[in-house]
C-alpha cells in the first residue's frame, strides 16, 4: 500500500473504478481501463432541492459540486428521468434538453478542478403524489400504497397504478434516454438509485411487489426489471461506468423483503456477470416495527450487509450509512469494502477530503433548516478549514525510516507501565492501550526483557518464549488494524535488577560493580553485586537478543529498538563507570562499543533497515557515567552511521551535579547542547527524547537538530496527541502519577480524546 502523509492511509489509496480485464491463456486484455480515483471518498447522492420549477441545475449546483470535487468521485443528487418520476420538489431532472444543458455546466465545472462525477438516476414509482407530477398517478409494480403520509404534500400516499408490460418497457426506455442525456452532458458515469423504496427497489422487494408475471414472484423474477434497466445503462456508458445503489434492509417508505439474503445474493451474482463498476450498500439500523410498519429490525435481518454480500459481487463495493472516517479507513484496509460514500459530513465540510487527509477537525454543525430547499445558505457557504496560525507544521511532515513510511514525526517513547503480571504475556488491555495511540508516526512498545535474567520491572511484558510472542500479536494486530506502526524495545537489565525479580538468578554485568543505591522494584532492597560476564555468557546474551528479535518479527512488529541507555546492560558495556574489563569488551572506546555494534549487526540480519537504538549519553540513572562522553558517543555514532539503522534516539538528560549522591557532574556540563554536539556525527535519522515540548521540537526539527521527537508522558494523557497537535488543541497535562506503574485500565486506557472531552 502506497504511503501518504495522512492518518487515514487506506482512504487515500488510489483506485481504478470499473477496470475490466479479460484473462486468456497467455495474456490479459484490458476491456475497460477504469476511472482513475485519487482516493476512496465519495459524495453520496443527497437531495438538496435547489432547482426552480423547470428542474434545471444552476450555477449554484455547479459551485456546490465543484467544492467537493476532490473526492474519488462524486454522485449527484437523484435526477428524475421523466415527468412521472418526480418525488421531491426542487430536485433536478434529466428528461429534457434544458436540464441536460444545466447539468453540463455542473460537469464542466467539476472537470475543470479535476473531479470525477456520476449522475444518480431516479424513478420514484409509488413514492410520490399525483400533485407533484401534474396530476399523473404514481406507477408501481403492484397497486400497494405506502402506509404513511407524504411529507412534502402532507397527504396520505395514494394507491399507485400497477404497471403494465408497456409501462415497464417505457420506463426502461426513459432510463436509457436519461443516460444518453447524461453522457451528452459529459458525466463520467451513471448510478441507478435502486434503494430507499424507489421504483427498482419496489420491484425487488416482496412487500411492494406482488406480481405473478415474469417481473414478480421468485427472487430471480423480481430482479428482472432492475437488470433490464442496468443493461440499458451499460449500452450507453459501458459496464465500467455504471453503479447501482441498494438498501437491502432499509424499511423507509414501507419497504421490506421476507428473505433479503437470498434476494440480494441472487441480484449481486447477476450484477457481477454484467461487470458493472460498483454497488453502493447502505448498512441500515432501522428498529423493530419502524414507523409501525411491523417489519423486523434491520440488524436482525442482516447484521452487516458488507460482510453478507462482499463475496457475491466482483466489482467495487461502496459503503454508506453513518460511517466515521475511522471506520471507513479500517473497513477499506481489511477489505470489507472499497469506497465510502459520505453524506452529512459533506454538507458542512465541502473540503472533507482535505480535512481527512490532514487529520483536521471536522465541522459537525449542520444547519438543518437549510439542508432542503433555499439558496446558497447552508449549501455553498460552509467554510473550508482554516489552519491555526500556531499549528506545529514541522512535526506533521512525513518521514521515511529506510523503507518504513511515517505519516508524521511524533513518535511514542517506550514507557514501562507494568500492567502485565506473570507470566508476562501481553493482554487485550495492552493491545487497547497501544491501539488508542496508533496515529503516532511510530510507537515504541515498552522495554521488553529478552530473557528471564533480564527482568528489572515485574509486570513488564516479555518476549523470551513463544507464548509471550503470541500475546504480542494482539498488540501488533490492534495497532496495524488502526493503520499504525510499532517497534518493540528489546531490553536487558544487566546489573540494574535484583535476583528476587528473576527467580533467584543473579544479575549479570560487564564488571562486578554494584549500583550504589536500592532497587525500588524489588521493595527497595540494595542492589546486589553482579556476576562479571564471561565470554560464553556474553555470546549467550547476544543470542538471547537475536531470539527475541525473531519472536518480535513473528509477532508482527515493524522493527526493534535496542535499549542501550538508562543504565541497562548495553549501556553498562558502553560507559566506563560500569565497565572495567581489560579484555576485548572493555578498556578503549572501541572495545566498549563492541557489544552494542555486534548486537546491531546481528539484529540487522533479522530486521534489515528496521533496527534502532536508544542512547543516554549524559544520563546518570543507574549509577552511570562516562569520563569522556563526547569521545565515546562520537565514535559510536560514526560506527552506527555505517550500519543502516532505522534511527537513533538520543535522550537529553537533565541530571544535576552529584545526582543521587553518585558524585558525577551535571549532565549539561558533560555535553552542552546534546543534539547540536552529536548531530554531525550521525548521518541517519535522529530522534530526540526527554521532556521536550511540541513547540520546542517543531523549532528544533526546523533547525535541523534532529528529525523527529519521542514523547513519553504526554502520550499517557493524550492518546490522540497527533490530532491535538495538528489542530493546535489544548493538551491534557493533568498527570496522575499514582497510576503510571501497575494497576488496571485507570490511568491507562481511560484517558479521553479531545472530542470525547468536549462531550463531557
UniProtKB/TrEMBL annotation:
One of its GO terms (molecular function) is oxidoreductase activity, acting on the CH-CH group of donors, NAD or NADP as acceptor. Pfam families: Oxidored_FMN. InterPro entries: OxRdtase_FMN_N, Oye-like. It comes from the Eukaryota. CDD domains: OYE_like_FMN. The keyword Oxidoreductase applies. Residues 36-362, 395-730 form the NADH:flavin oxidoreductase/NADH oxidase N-terminal domain. The keyword Oxidoreductase applies. Keywords: Oxidoreductase. Its cofactor is FMN. Coiled coil: none annotated. GO terms for cellular component: cytosol. Belongs to the NADH:flavin oxidoreductase/NADH oxidase family. This is NADH:flavin oxidoreductase/NADH oxidase N-terminal domain-containing protein. The lineage of its organism: Eukaryota, Sar, Alveolata, Ciliophora, Intramacronucleata.
Amino acid at each position: 500500500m502506497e504511503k501518504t502523509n495522512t492518518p487515514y492511509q487506506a482512504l487515500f489509496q488510489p483506485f481504478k473504478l470499473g477496470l475490466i480485464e479479460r484473462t486468456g491463456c497467455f495474456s490479459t486484455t484490458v476491456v475497460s481501463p477504469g476511472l482513475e480515483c485519487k482516493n476512496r471518498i465519495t459524495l453520496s447522492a443527497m437531495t438538496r432541492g435547489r432547482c426552480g420549477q423547470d428542474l434545471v441545475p444552476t450555477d449554484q449546483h455547479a459551485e456546490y459540486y465543484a467544492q467537493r470535487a476532490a473526492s474519488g468521485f462524486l454522485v449527484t443528487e437523484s435526477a428524475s428521468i421523466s415527468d412521472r418520476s418526480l418525488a421531491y420538489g426542487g430536485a433536478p431532472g434529466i428528461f429534457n434538453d434544458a436540464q441536460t444543458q444545466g447539468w453540463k455546466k455542473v460537469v464542466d465545472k467539476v472537470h475543470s478542478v479535476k473531479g470525477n462525477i456520476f449522475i444518480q438516476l431516479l424513478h420514484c414509482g409509488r413514492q410520490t403524489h399525483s400533485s407533484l407530477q401534474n396530476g399523473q398517478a404514481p406507477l408501481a409494480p403492484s397497486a400497494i400504497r405506502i402506509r404513511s403520509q407524504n411529507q412534502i404534500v402532507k397527504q396520505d400516499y395514494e394507491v399507485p397504478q400497477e404497471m403494465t408490460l408497456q409501462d415497464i418497457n417505457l420506463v426502461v426506455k426513459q432510463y436509457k434516454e436519461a443516460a444518453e442525456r447524461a453522457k451528452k452532458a459529459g458525466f463520467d458515469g451513471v448510478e441507478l438509485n435502486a434503494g430507499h423504496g424507489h421504483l427498482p427497489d419496489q420491484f425487488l422487494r416482496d412487500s411492494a411487489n406482488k406480481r405473478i408475471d415474469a417481473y414478480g414472484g421468485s427472487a430471480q423474477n423480481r430482479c428482472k426489471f432492475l437488470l433490464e434497466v442496468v443493461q440499458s445503462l451499460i449500452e450507453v456508458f459501458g459496464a465500467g461506468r455504471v453503479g447501482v445503489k441498494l438498501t437491502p434492509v432499509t424499511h423507509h417508505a414501507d419497504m421490506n423483503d421476507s428473505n433479503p439474503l437470498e434476494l440480494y445474493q441472487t441480484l449481486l451474482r447477476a450484477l457481477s456477470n454484467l461487470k458493472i463498476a460498483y454497488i453502493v450498500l447502505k448498512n441500515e439500523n432501522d428498529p423493530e416495527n419502524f414507523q409501525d410498519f411491523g417489519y423486523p429490525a434491520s440488524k436482525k435481518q442482516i447484521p452487516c450487509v458488507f460482510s453478507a454480500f462482499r463475496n457475491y459481487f466482483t466489482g467495487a463495493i461502496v459503503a454508506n450509512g453513518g460511517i466515521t472516517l475511522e471506520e471507513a479507513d479500517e473497513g477499506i484496509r481489511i477489505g470489507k469494502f472499497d469506497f465510502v460514500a459520505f453524506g452529512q459530513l459533506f454538507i458542512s465540510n465541502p473540503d472533507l477530503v482535505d480535512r481527512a487527509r490532514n487529520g483536521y477537525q471536522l465541522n459537525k454543525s449542520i444547519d438543518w433548516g437549510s439542508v432542503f430547499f433555499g439558496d446558497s445558505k447552508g449549501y455553498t457557504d460552509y467554510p473550508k478549514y482554516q489552519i491555526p496560525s500556531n499549528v506545529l507544521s514541522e512535526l506533521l511532515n512525513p518521514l521515511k525510516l529506510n523503507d518504513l513510511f511515517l505519516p508524521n514525526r511524533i513518535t511514542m517513547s517506550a514507557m514501562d507501565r507494568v500492567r502485565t503480571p506473570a507470566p508476562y504475556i501481553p493482554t487485550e488491555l495492552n493491545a487497547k492501550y497501544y491501539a488508542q495511540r496508533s496515529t503516532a508516526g511510530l510507537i515504541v512498545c515498552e522495554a521488553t526483557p529478552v530473557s528471564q535474567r533480564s527482568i528489572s520491572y515485574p509486570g513488564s511484558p516479555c518476549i523470551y518464549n513463544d507464548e509471550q510472542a503470541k500475546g504480542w500479536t494482539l498488540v501488533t494486530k490492534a495497532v496495524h488494524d488502526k493503520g499504525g506502526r510499532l517497534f518493540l524495545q528489546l531490553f536487558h537489565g544487566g546489573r540494574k535488577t535484583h535476583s528476587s525479580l528473576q527467580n533467584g538468578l543473579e544479575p549479570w554485568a560487564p564488571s562486578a560493580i554494584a549500583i550504589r543505591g536500592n532497587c525500588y522494584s524489588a521493595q527497595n532492597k540494595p542492589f546486589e553485586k553482579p556476576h562479571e560476564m564471561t565470554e560464553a555468557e556474553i555470546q549467550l546474551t547476544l543470542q538471547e537478543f537475536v531470539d527475541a528479535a525473531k519472536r518480535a518479527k513473528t509477532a508482527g512488529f515493524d522493527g526493534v529498538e535496542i535499549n542501550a541507555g538508562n543504565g541497562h546492560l548495553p549501556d553498562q558495556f558502553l560507559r566506563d563507570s560500569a565497565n572495567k574489563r581489560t579484555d576485548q569488551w572493555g578498556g578503549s572506546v572501541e572495545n566498549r562499543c563492541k557489544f552494542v555494534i555486534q548486537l546491531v549487526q546481528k539484529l540487522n540480519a533479522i530486521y534489515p533497515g528496521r533496527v534502532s537504538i536508544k542512547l543516554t549519553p549524559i544520563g546518570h540513572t543507574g549509577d552511570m557515567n562516562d569520563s569522556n562522553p563526547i569521545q565515546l558517543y562520537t565514535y559510536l555514532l560514526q560506527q552506527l552511521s555505517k550500519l543502516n539503522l532505522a534511527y537513533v534516539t538520543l535522550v537529553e538528560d537533565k541530571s544535576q551535579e552529584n545526582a543521587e549522591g553518585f558524585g558525577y557532574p551535571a549532565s549539561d556540563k558533560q555535553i552542552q547542547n546534546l543534539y547540536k554536539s552529536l548531530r554531525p556525527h550521525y548521518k541517519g535519522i535522529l530522534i530526540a527524547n526527554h521532556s521536550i515540548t511540541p513547540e520546542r521540537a517543531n523549532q528544533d526539527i526546523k533547525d535541523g537538530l534532529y528529525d523527529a521527537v519521542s514523547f513519553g508522558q504526554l502520550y499517557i494523557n493524550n492518546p490522540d496527541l497527533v490530532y491535538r497537535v495538528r489542530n493546535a488543541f489544548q493538551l491534557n497535562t493533568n498527570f496522575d502519577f499514582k497510576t503510571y506503574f501497575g494497576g488496571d485500565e485507570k490511568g491507562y486506557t481511560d484517558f479521553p480524546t479531545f472530542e470525547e472531552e468536549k462531550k463531557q
